[in-house]
Structure formats: structure tokens, C-alpha cells
């Protein structure tokens, strides 16, 4: 319902065939995103750093395909988008790499490959394993978290700034991004990312919340 209503409200579309939804997280509640994309009829690319969560969703049938290769993900995205095929593709990697690759595609081809975007990393708990920084691989990041939590925190905040910078570039070209109630925008703001709503007070963000703006 969230994905469908986001399409209705922000894309003015009842039919999401050929539309692309990019997000992250395949553990816990976020695991439903892949299934939601297919039910809504769109192309869903969901990034997940933890291979165990990715494989679990694939085994359950909630996720149609998995890949750890961004070239392959972009090729599948283009193919499914062109042919209006419903697809849920799990990218085994950091979502920041995925967002930055989509910016690269926009810069190099002029083509905006994503229509809807969100995030379901556990940003209510970003410095204790809820969000993994793009600068490190999953296992390396887990080790740093236990040996140097202060350094881990710094890397998470740098990663959040990169995360938002990529989203902002795509949103400026017409992608619609929303917050999934996971404190992503709040933690990004605390990290110094550009998420403030222009001309509004500092408690308002430039992107909507699914609770207030989409489901409400």
C-alpha cells in the first residue's frame, strides 16, 4: 500500500509497471519491500549488506533474484523497466554504492533510472549495527564496530552524508523519495547531511514521511 500510494501521490500513476523503486534492507520488517514491489507491479531493487538476510528472503520466495554485481543490477533494471516486467532484485552490497551508481548513470547518459526511493536500514540504531558504512565491507565493518566504535560512528555519519547527496541529485531530476519511519532523515541531519526543508523550521525535512504524507 505504501508503494502504491507513493506512486499515486507522487507519480500520479495508478499503474506502476515500468516504474523503478530503489531501497535498502531485507531483514525484519524491511524484508517485505521486495514482495511489495512485485505486488505493485514495479521493478524493485533492494540493497542488503548482510548476505544471510538476502539469501533468507530469496529462499522464502520474497525476492526473485540476487546479485552482487552493480553492472548486472543496472542491466536487469533497464531490461525490466523497458519491458514493464515486475521484478524484485536483491543487491548484495551497500545501498550507497547503488545510489551513487544511479547518479553516475544519470550523469553519463542523462537517464533517470529510478522513480521512487526510500530506505529501511535500522537508522533508529545506526551506531550499533543498524546501518553499515559504505567505506567498509560488511565483515570489516562488524570488526571495527567491536574494536573502535568511535571510528565506526564517524564512518557511518560520513556514509549518511554520501547517501543523502546521491538521493538529492536524483530527486532534483524527478525521483520521489520518502522516509519509512526508520529515523533515516533524523540521523542524516545529525550527521550534517542536506535534508532540511528550504524555508521551513529545522524539524521539517525536504522529504515526506510515509506515515503522515503517504498512508495518512
From TrEMBL:
Pfam families: Urocanase. GO terms for molecular function: urocanate hydratase activity. GO terms for biological process: L-histidine catabolic process. Residues 2-214 form the Urocanase Rossmann-like domain. Signal peptide: none annotated. InterPro entries: Urocanase-like (IPR023637), Urocanase_central_sf (IPR038364), Urocanase_Rossmann-like (IPR035085), Urocanase_sf (IPR036190). PANTHER family: UROCANATE HYDRATASE (PTHR12216:SF3). This is HUTU hydratase. It comes from Climacteris rufus. The gene is Uroc1.
Amino acid at each position: 500500500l505504501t508503494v502504491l500510494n507513493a506512486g499515486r501521490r507522487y507519480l500520479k500513476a495508478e499503474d506502476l509497471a515500468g516504474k523503478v523503486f530503489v531501497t535498502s534492507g531485507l531483514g525484519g520488517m524491511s524484508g517485505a519491500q521486495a514482495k511489495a514491489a512485485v505486488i505493485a507491479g514495479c521493478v524493485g531493487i533492494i540493497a542488503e549488506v548482510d548476505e544471510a538476510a538476502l539469501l533468507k528472503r530469496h529462499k522464502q520466495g520474497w525476492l526473485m533474484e540476487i546479485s552482487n554485481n552493480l553492472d548486472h543490477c543496472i542491466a536487469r533494471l533497464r531490461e525490466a523497466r523497458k519491458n514493464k516486467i515486475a521484478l524484485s532484485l536483491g543487491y548484495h552490497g551497500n545501498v550507497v554504492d547503488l545510489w551513487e551508481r544511479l547518479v553516475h548513470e544519470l550523469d553519463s547518459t542523462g537517464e533517470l533510472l529510478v522513480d521512487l526511493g526510500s530506505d529501511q536500514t535500522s537508522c533508529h540504531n545506526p551506531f550499533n549495527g543498524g546501518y553499515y558504512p559504505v567505506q567498509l565491507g560488511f565483515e570489516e565493518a562488524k570488526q571495527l564496530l567491536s574494536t573502535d566504535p568511535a571510528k565506526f560512528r564517524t564512518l557511518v555519519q560520513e556514509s549518511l552524508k554520501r547517501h543523502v547527496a546521491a538521493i538529492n541529485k536524483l530527486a532534483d531530476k524527478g525521483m520521489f523519495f520518502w522516509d519509512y519511519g526508520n529515523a533515516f532523515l533524523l540521523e542524516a541531519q545529525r550527521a550534517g547531511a542536506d535534508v532540511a526543508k528550504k524555508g521551513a523550521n529545522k524539524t521539517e525535512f525536504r522529504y515526506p514521511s510515509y506515515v503522515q504524507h503517504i498512508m495518512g
